[in-house]
Design goal:
Elements: H1 2-7, H2 9-27, H3 32-52, E1 58-60, E2 65-67, H4 69-88, H5 90-95, H6 102-119, H7 123-141, H8 148-179, H9 184-190, H10 196-212, H11 222-228, H12 231-254, H13 261-282, H14 289-309, H15 313-337, E3 341-342, E4 345-346, H16 356-359, H17 361-375, H18 381-395, H19 399-425, H20 438-453, H21 459-466
Antiparallel strand pairs: 1-2, 3-4
Helix pairs in contact: 2-3, 2-6, 3-4, 3-6, 4-6, 4-12, 4-15, 6-7, 7-8, 8-10, 8-11, 10-12, 10-13, 11-14, 12-14, 12-15, 13-14, 13-19, 14-15, 14-18, 14-19, 15-17, 15-18, 15-20, 15-21, 17-19, 17-20
Length: 471
Amino acid sequence: MINSLNILLPEVFLTLSIFSILMIGVFTKKSFNLVFNLSTITLLVTAGIIVNSSNVSEKIFLDSFMKDSFSNFFKILILISSLFVLNSSRNFITAKKINKFEYPIIILISILGMFFMLSSNDIILFYLGLELQSLALYILASIDRDNLRSSESGIKYFVLSALSSGLLLYGCSLLYGFTGSTNFDLIAEQLNEDNTGAIFAMVFILVGLAFKVSAVPFHMWTPDVYEGAPTSITSFFAVVPKVVGLALLIKFMFIPFSNIILEWQTIIIFISIASMILGAVAAIVQKNLKRLLAYSSIGHVGYALAGVATGEASGYESAVVYISIYVVMNIGAFSCLYLMKKNGEYKENISDLSGVSKKHPALAISFLIILFSLAGIPPLGGFFAKFYVFSSVIEQEMYSLAIIGLLTTVISAFYYLRIIKTIYFDDSVITFDPIKDRFAQFTIFLSCTVLLTFFLYPSFLNNIVNSLFIN
């Protein structure tokens, strides 16, 4: 019992914190600032608990719940990402009058669902975690009830996400029917190329997971939700659920589907290529920065999936490195959007950045570093992310996938460079309000510093990620 409590300690602490903060919020006249600060402390303490826990693989509850270095790494990445996303958007939340005390609590609930998904070693526990996360995200997408676009984005996300969850649940039920178990380890033993029904189930599960990471052709919700939802919510959607989605894809490929690599490899390759191409081409015509970042994220998911498509530990490792650097780039990019404020109104269009380098050189150089990194320009962090993925793909002699990836990287560089051209070479149109958001500034500075200095010691992240796949 004591051992089980130690393994479950992060989830137990997070659950008790959510209930406690909710009651505090209700009985303190719905104080947003108090609840926000307590939520930030909860994220920090939970991260501390995980850092101080053992990375030895342990299973409890009939092997349905698993704690290991893989889940611990992604839990810490989620907590750090959420911490920066929340605090960098604090002024934006207040300015947009969506500073309801439930806001940070709903984010904590979604994180709790993600924790259970990451630690799941059983289909039932995995799906329960998925639904807990999804229900919280439905609310977040439409939290600005007085804004028509926010309400519309919430409905779109709800309908399409419910459809994908239904397909995923159908796949899970088929998988149970054809393997006789809900446990990942037992499913792996029963699953082989002769079990046609289970392979059919695997396709439905892949469809559901592809929706969660907004991979083509299940990406249709992404641009509309990114543009319609408040920027603070968009930044959360762009970072945290994608990290979890990719982690789960890797987990399914690495454990239950490890014996049918050839069956799922073709599907992942197709999804990867389609995502890279659409992300590169569709973003060219976008005029809204949030919508552009939506298509950009679809392209980046395609690159990460290229690593997963190898079916080898080196490919999985490159995908984890990629998503880790992607998190840093996107948090920095969305923090820059919080500084694009004129007369109390937040600007989102690319044209609003015209000549901004003349009046706001610090903001301009921040955009320059982050966009160059997103484009994969050396020696920034984004270059190394793509380098590791393409290296692992070439090692497996998947040359067509590598060539398409490199070509789409060149195409996508166009729209990143176009924004930089607008910032530095167009005539100045808008002078933004004086910057008062110190945490957003700190987040941008930290993001740019990591991206600029990553080349000095890239093996630091590699060494951590490599240990995740050691059996």
